[in-house]
Specification:
Length: 115
């Protein structure tokens, strides 16, 4: 099952602040709300409702610090972005044996503190 890219759904960059995410969420919900679709077109209402629920899921995930960190780790592995800074990263083996995307700068910074 593929994980949707919540940043693309809301149209915000990876490093967006909570305020920018909130503004983008309001615009996206207004634009896709089922009440904007003619009610006699049941299929369009259903599609619009699904879009709004996905937009709400994106907002809930990206405004919760813990959920956002977990999401960024999952999406970072799939997109090749560093899970720490968001730049292009390589897949490396994490401490628990899981695949983690991390760039060379963050990887070397982390290794410099190991004894």
């Amino acid at each position: 099952m593929s994980v949707p890219n919540f940043y693309d759904i809301l149209g915000v960059p990876f490093e967006a602040s909570e305020e920018a995410i909130r503004k983008a969420w309001k615009i996206a919900v207004r634009r896709n709300h089922p009440d904007k679709v003619p009610q006699d077109n049941v299929e369009q209402v259903k599609i619009s409702s699904e879009k709004v629920s996905l937009i709400n899921e994106a907002y809930a995930t990206l405004t919760n610090d813990l959920a956002r960190k977990r999401y960024d780790l999952i999406v970072g592995v799939r997109s090749g972005r560093c899970s720490i800074c968001g730049k292009a990263g390589k897949l490396r083996l994490g401490l628990n044996g899981e695949a983690v995307a991390i760039c060379d700068i963050c990887y070397n910074w982390d290794n410099s503190f190991k004894f």
